[in-house]
Amino acid sequence: MRQRQSGAPVQSIRPTGYAPRRSHGLALVAVLWVVTLLTVMAGSFSLTIRREAGIAYNIVQATQARLSAEAGLRYTQLQLVHPDTSLRWHARAEPYRLALAPAELEITVRDSAALIDLNQASPELLTGLLQTAGGLDREHSEGLSAHLLLWRGTQAASPLADARDYAAAGLDYGPRNAPFVSVAELPLVYGMNPELYRRLAPWLTVDSSRAYISPFSAPPEVLRALPGLSDNDIARYLEARAHSNEPTTGLNLLAPAANDVGGLTPSAYTVEITATLLSGVQTTLRASFTRDALSFTADFGALSSYDQRIY
């Protein structure tokens, strides 16, 4: 047996295909990075899909609510001219309720004259609304009321002076001196701001073509704008109106504001419909139309298929 010579180097013998342990570690790290990257990509893709599905769901829900409100509008127009007077709808302060799958509808039908017409209302009525609904003091209410009259062209004043007011506010225009086209035009008037517009807009219209308001279906916010009436007068009238279907009930309580009250037979309607789905998605539609525009020759047979809950 040959012995190893002293001092001779020892050679290690490795099996074929052997890789250093360091190479194994680098491969493991690379695999982990790839797995992590794939996991992040899969998570990002899943999140994108979920977001897009959520957006699509919301669009579908909003569309369903909107179409339900539009269907409720057509239904309301039919009910306003229903041949059976016991089933016919009328302008009133309390909303009608209607189940129209997939939505529950709350429908308020008002005589358009139950709101204050921007183009026809008296200065006193506009001032009253600015005070009660707008929360302005009398001085500011009268000043803004004058600007409303100037805008619609029914107030005599110096155009130059008024133009200077607009210029001083940084506006590059003056009053139109023409009737309001819509309530949405109101923010353009000098002295108006978004918060004040938000408070006033629900109680205004340009569709009634009446200087007075019809009290039978008028909301309390409009009644409080009537000049010469106390809160007690309004409360007593609302109580009388709630317990009677006769338009003339309690009108004597509004006698101090007789010049701004009238029109018990609607010539135009303003309808506000709120559609609510089971998911909680909600939309509100507001429309105005004249009574002459309603069809008296429609087929009313389909109306009986809907569940009406009127109270």
Q: Please give the number of β-strands.
A: 7
Structural class by SSE content: alpha+beta
Largest sheet, spatial ordering of strands: 6-5-2-1-7
CATH topology of the largest domain: Ribonucleotide Reductase Protein R1, domain 1
CATH architecture label name of the largest domain: Orthogonal Bundle
In terms of DSSP E residues, the strand content is: 5-15%
Order of helices and strands: HEEEHHHHEHHEEE
Taking pLDDT < 50 over at least 5 consecutive residues as the criterion, the unreliable ranges are 303-311
In helices, the fraction of residues equals: 25-40%
Topology, pairings included?
Elements: H1 21-79, E1 96-100, E2 103-111, E3 116-117, H2 123-132, H3 138-152, H4 159-168, H5 194-200, E4 204-205, H6 220-223, H7 231-242, E5 268-277, E6 282-290, E7 307-309
What does this protein look like?
There is one protein chain. The protein has 311 residues and is of the alpha+beta class. The chain folds into two domains: 53-113 and 267-309, Pantoate--beta-alanine Ligase, Chain: A,domain 2 (2-Layer Sandwich), CATH 3.30.1300; 118-203 and 220-260, Ribonucleotide Reductase Protein R1, domain 1 (Orthogonal Bundle), CATH 1.10.40. 38% of the residues lie in helices and 13% in strands. It contains seven helices and seven strands. Strands 6-5-2-1-7 form a five-stranded antiparallel sheet. It has a two-stranded parallel ribbon with strand order 3-4. The longest helix has 59 residues, at 21-79. 27% of the residues are buried. Mean pLDDT is 83; it is low at 303-311.
